[in-house]
């Protein structure tokens, strides 16, 4: 289990912490289907078989090549796909159709009738293939689904006939009059296609949820939860479908049964994905999900993997980037025990992934309610977090340091925080964070490094109202580093937010220790209005070659 949740979370966290503060939320509302992000050449290679089979059907004009029963004539994927997940193949085919419909609209706009017709034939084949594929592995689809299948096939045939007539005439007036009919038909096909996919995905989500809820077999339940998790990774729209069909309720039932303890990590991971949408959050509140999470976090008999996944759910539902967390009234009732459990998880974390999830949840909670900072202070969380940062096996990425410095920045508004920082050698840590640089050049990691620099400067600015902290910062040569970050765009990766934070910290330290600056630095970075110093530093990026 450890390898499963560890690899899943590393991918999920890398994507999650892209926002201005940190969690950019898993995820966000997506209008069109979004499949697995892979290299474009790899995607083309995977699609090639589908496209080739489809072209064969175009030549045959979708006619059977034998006199056997229609069921035997259905186009299905070649045997190499038999082991693939059927829903993934369905989603891939749906993505291809969606892309083709968009391209048809573009070609139609340019009056490229020959291309429009050939693409229409291809879409017609893809639609028939998708429906046949789906019906080969689903024997109990609804009557409504069959009605939409027929409507879509009929409309696609009508569309193909329309475009065929268009390539047989060169009269511009006739083509112009037919164009509006073709546009209307294309719109109708897109609507029918969208409704059919919605019905199919809803039907499959219902099937999976029924398996999870009513199966007594751990193996069947595990397989269904795994499939459900795969669906949640296809975008927010699928998460909404699952939430509306009662997915959160069903999964929390699993989390309340001891016989399924081995499935808790996988179940909680799926819950975290579903709760990126408002419908999932509302359901979580209705089933007392916060209380269940608190029970899991405070139960020492659960595995570290289970605690880590529960922390991931907390991190998701308290993300400062979500606009629908205000209704989580029950969270405030359980906040103290949740925060206590998360601090303990940070302290006892055996890996960087576990620490990252626990610290991310704590960081979000400090945004969620200011009382959390006072609880953290009482729990000596500052000391625990600073100690963890000295262990490079635990705080091993910019993402983890981003969470730690977020907590420090939010706690630094408390007057008592300054003495804790001094005792834990926190000023030295903040100084080191001003040098945070990406080792890989990955865009998400670069953004995380910028946030670490920005928040460490913000924390220094807030804490330097205490003379002891300011004196320690000056002795550690924070002023020269802040000046370099202001004057050198490459040091801050051209980040304006880092520049503003560094200017603010520099001005605070200059008040406490004016002798630490040269006159030119004082005249340009401290004496003017903040906006003037900002403009001066940003103009240094321009080239006058």
From TrEMBL:
One MF term in the entry's GO annotations: cytoskeletal anchor activity
Superkingdom, taxonomy of origin: Eukaryota
Positions of the Protein inscuteable homologue LGN-binding domain: 36-80
GO biological process, one term: asymmetric cell division
Gene Ontology annotations for the cellular component aspect, listed alphabetically: apical cortex
Signal peptide extent: none
Domain Protein inscuteable homologue C-terminal: residue ranges: 93-545
Record-linked InterPro entries: ARM-like (IPR011989), ARM-type_fold (IPR016024), Armadillo (IPR000225), Insc_C (IPR045789), INSC_LBD (IPR031938), INSC_LBD_sf (IPR038205), Inscuteable (IPR039921)
Full protein name: INSC protein
